[in-house]
Design goal:
Radius of gyration: 14 Å
Strand order of the largest sheet: 2-1-3-4-5
Distance between the termini: 21 Å
Strand content: 5-15%
Largest sheet: 5 strands, parallel
Helix content: 40-55%
Structural class: alpha/beta
Number of helices: 5
Shape: globular
Order of helices and strands: EHEHHEHEEH
């Protein structure tokens, strides 16, 4: 299984990298900061093309929802694109995971709320545990199962 990870790059790339390093599911290659800046400088159509090409052959789309993810325009584009393509879609809360400075964030808004009623159909998993280590362990244990159970618009 190979998935497309949608997330707030600037704030959450460390957390996402840790999830990808688990090796539970193959994901979209994580661009380094310079590569992402190069894509962004090329304009909105280049960003859309990059997202579309990365998402095309993925089995599912997983929104890794941090504190500010819900307000990100490209995350919204990725959510809408997943629904258009009929890709299984789900979310996993990552706010309780530590960043590179060892800090965690409060829980952010549901990134699917802008969809209205349909947002109630999309699973948004909250990893179990009181510590960041516990939550990483829960993600490692369950990510593959969660990815197989995403919402798909017919």
């Amino acid at each position: 299984m190979s998935v497309f990870y949608s997330f707030h790059y600037d704030r959450d790339n460390w957390r996402v990298h840790q999830i990808m390093e688990m090796g539970v599911i193959e994901g979209t290659p994580l661009l380094n900061h310079q590569e992402w800046e190069k894509v962004k400088r090329s304009g909105d159509s280049a960003i859309r093309n990059w997202i579309d090409s990365q998402m095309r052959y993925k089995s599912a789309v997983i929104v890794l929802a941090g504190y500010q993810t819900a307000g990100r325009p490209w995350v919204r584009y990725e959510i809408n694109r997943a629904l258009e393509l009929g890709k299984p879609l789900l979310g996993v809360r990552i706010n309780g995971l530590k960043d590179k400075s060892g800090r965690t964030d409060p829980e952010g808004r549901n990134p699917f709320d802008f969809l209205g009623f349909e947002s109630l159909l999309i699973p948004l998993h909250r990893p179990y545990g009181y510590t960041s280590t516990d939550r990483y362990a829960d993600i490692r244990k369950n990510l593959r199962y969660w990815a197989e159970d995403g919402y798909r618009r017919n």
